[in-house]
Write a structure and sequence with these properties.
- This protein has helices at 46-53, 76-86, 102-112, 117-130, 146-158, 176-191, 203-206; strands at residues 5-14, 20-30, 35-39, 61-66, 69-70, 87-91, 164-168, 195-200, 211-216, 219-220.
- It is an alpha/beta fold.
- It has a 6-stranded mixed sheet, sandwiched between helices. Strands 2-1-4-5 form a 4-stranded antiparallel sheet, covered by helices on one side.
């Protein structure tokens, strides 16, 4: 099968002075259906790697192939289209609109993919059911618990059935019991065949993956 992710000597240097090499040359292959966790301390290069994988940034040198296509040199419009249709993001801070309902927050992701309103609302309802929040679809996000808000964020990330789900410290703002519930949900998505890359500094989160790599000082091992 064609890998979802293939990095070949991909690196990222930010201009100075002096220039900073945030990510040294990386070689990484992630097959479809893989649950990969990336572990490293703060400042290790995790966010830089995530931004490249999610096409929010591009490598300074080397190659990034996404589902077999070299996306290293794509223009911004093409990269935006891939993110809208093929990549889902889950962040530590949820990034929900506080005065919008769960359904409206999830449907927003489909707006960028060009879906009509009726289809957006239908898909949002299905995604909320998938994460166990069908009963909260009309609730404002600022009335929800942290765990519920993260589930809404996950529903938003998977509503367009992406090829890749990227999670950046998805349990960082949650207590232990709530975090376990969110990680159980990620396990379920993986069992359903989704490809996941989870960035974390927590060993208990990393242990949920089927494969773990470590990043330190911009070097992957």
């Amino acid at each position: 099968m064609t890998p979802v992710i293939r990095l070949v000597d991909a690196c990222r240097t930010f201009p100075g002075p002096p220039p900073v090499q945030a990510l040294h040359p990386v070689n990484l292959t992630v097959e479809p259906g893989t649950y990969l966790t990336v572990v490293g301390p703060s400042g290790s290069g995790k966010s830089t790697l995530l931004n490249i994988l999610g096409l929010l940034d591009r490598p300074s040198a080397g190659v990034y192939e996404f589902e077999g296509a070299d996306v290293s040199e794509l223009n911004d419009r093409s990269r935006t289209a891939i993110r809208a249709h093929q990549v889902g993001f889950v962040f530590q801070s949820f990034h929900l609109m506080p005065l919008r309902t769960a359904t409206e927050n999830v449907a927003l992701a489909q707006l960028y993919a060009g879906a009509g309103r009726r289809q957006r609302m239908l898909d949002a309802g299905i995604a909320l059911e998938r994460v166990g929040l069908g009963h909260r679809r009309s609730s404002l996000s600022n009335t929800m618990s942290g765990g519920e808000r993260q589930r809404v964020a996950i529903a938003r990330a998977i509503v367009h059935r992406p090829s890749l789900l990227l999670c950046d410290e998805p349990t960082g703002n949650l207590d232990t019991a709530t975090a376990d519930g969110v990680l159980d949900l990620l396990d379920e998505l993986h069992r359903d065949g989704m490809t996941l890359v989870v960035i974390t500094h927590a060993s208990e989160v990393a242990a949920r993956g089927q494969r773990t790599v470590t990043i330190r000082d911009g070097r992957l091992s």
